[in-house]
Write a structure and sequence with these properties.
This protein has about 450 residues and is α+β, with helices and mostly antiparallel strands. Helix content is about 65%, strand content about 15%. The chain folds into 2 domains: about 375 residues, Outer membrane efflux proteins (OEP) (Up-down Bundle); about 80 residues. Strand 2 and strand 3 form a beta hairpin. Helix 2 packs across helix 4 and helix 3 packs antiparallel against helix 4.
């Protein structure tokens, strides 16, 4: 039977499509001209986020601490000075009275020392170099975490905007269905049940709209707090959206790359190197040390009759020290550091296994998400067809009002799920790179290419 024989159905179908298009346009393109892309909001968060700034300060502090470890290789110098005054009473039995004097002693000295052979100091300096690299890996982890947090907050706002737009479109469609049920009841072609069912669904959509508005408000607050801007406006994605597949398209390649590039694995390797150097420091407790020393001092004695003098003393020499016995402290320290080496090796292996598992999980999450998007796209088309069929059946009397309402609800729920699934795939791609340790700020450029201009 031709569709044109059901003018009310044609009018409703046109109204439903128009309502959805208007709601989506209002949600996606009502943003001001100063809407920001993902990279812009990330740069803003990088300068504002307290967690990242804390990690950056810790990184700089670790650099300064690492430089301290090299102090044992450099010369040291010191200046000392002293002044003392004495009260001396000399009693002489043959004399009529005793003699009293107040000798004063003044001294000043400058000394310097240069380590020549100190294996423990050398190991400590090498540990400082490792600590610098370790600090860099820690900052890399914080930067990757910030990229993912900003991206998640960004697409959470877009998902909430879409959800609100779909709810508003559904409200308009249900309102039209409610009006139709009331008209049909007034002319006696439907029962009061249709009107009450449509009213109940309309009230439910109102509640969903209130919840969606609040969810969008909360998500915007979270994004603003993260990036340090008021009323930040993320750019929407451009539709139709073609989601990129993971490159390389092989989970084992991603895992292999993680073993080479992940900051946590690099940190575990560096921790093992530091533990080995700690063992070298402990073993140095049995070894001798040799320093070059030099000093120059001045000593003056005043207020002593016949003895006022000044002595200048300069010395240059070598200081040699050989440990003989320390109560087995050195031997036990070596045992401790060797066991800590084993711990560091186990920590490294544990990090590799955990990162490999996380990388596989993230990879299959992206692949599964892409499959889910395709399935939801098909479900969207099927839901639209089912809605059209139910509306036609309602007009000819083979379907009831609740069938149309359920079809509407299913269609808009599918649209919400599809929009969210697309965003989850985009964020999942970034999380995949975070999982294998290759995530960089430049990776956001590919995502920006999928946004509206």
């Amino acid at each position: 039977m031709p569709m044109s024989r059901f003018p009310r159905l044609d009018r409703f179908h046109h109204f439903q499509r128009t309502a959805l298009s208007s709601a989506l346009a209002a949600a996606l393109f009502s943003a001001p001209a100063m809407a920001q892309n993902l990279s812009q909001l990330y740069e803003s968060a990088r300068a504002y986020d307290a967690t990242y700034q804390s990690a950056k300060s810790q990184y700089e502090a670790n650099l300064a601490k690492a430089e301290q470890a090299k102090a044992g290789l450099y010369p040291t110098a010191g200046l000392s000075a002293g002044l003392s005054r004495s009260n001396v009473e000399n009693s002489n039995p043959s004399a009529q009275r005793s003699a009293t004097s107040n000798p004063t002693s003044q001294n000043a000295a400058v000394s310097a020392s240069q380590p020549l052979y100190r294996p423990a100091n050398r190991a400590t300096a090498l540990q400082g170099d490792k600590q610098i690299e370790l600090a860099k890996t820690t900052l890399d982890v914080a930067e990757q975490d910030l990229i993912v947090r900003v991206s998640q907050a960004y697409f959470d706002v877009l998902a909430s905007q879409d959800s609100l737009a779909f709810v508003k479109a559904q409200k308009a469609a249900v309102a039209e269905q409610l009006a139709s049920a009331k008209r049909n009841f007034e002319v006696g072609t439907s029962t009061i049940t249709d009107t009450r069912e449509a009213q109940a669904r309309f009230d439910l959509v109102i509640a969903q709209e209130i919840a969606a508005e609040n969810d969008l408000r909360v998500k915007k607050i979270a994004l603003d707090q993260l990036v340090g801007q008021a009323n930040s406006q993320p750019k929407p994605v451009a539709l139709p959206l073609s989601l990129p597949a993971p490159v390389p398209n092989d989970v084992n390649a991603w895992v292999l790359q993680s073993e080479q590039d992940h900051p946590n694995i690099k940190a575990a390797v560096l921790a093992l190197d530091v533990a080995k150097l700690e063992t070298a420091k402990a073993e140095a407790g049995h070894k001798p040390t040799l320093d070059a020393t030099a000093s120059y001092g001045i000593n003056r004695t005043l207020n002593v009759p016949g003895a006022n003098n000044r002595a200048n003393t300069a010395t240059v020499g070598l200081a040699f020290n050989l440990p003989l016995f320390a109560g087995f402290a050195t031997q036990n320290r070596v045992k401790e550091t060797l066991l800590l080496e084993d711990k560091a090796r186990n920590d490294l292996e544990g990090a590799k296994r955990a990162i490999a598992q996380a990388t596989r999980t993230a990879y299959f999450g992206v692949v599964s998400g892409q499959g889910q998007v395709k399935a939801l796209e098909a479900a969207e088309a099927s839901s639209q067809s089912a809605l059209d069929a139910n509306k036609l059946g309602y007009q000819v009397g083979v379907r009831i009002n609740i069938d149309v309402l359920n079809s509407q609800s299913q269609l808009f729920q599918t649209k919400r799920d599809l929009a969210k699934a697309r965003y989850d795939v985009l964020v999942g791609g970034l999380k995949l790179r975070q999982a294998n340790g290759t995530l960089k700020a430049q990776d956001l450029d590919a995502v920006n290419g999928l946004l509206a201009k």
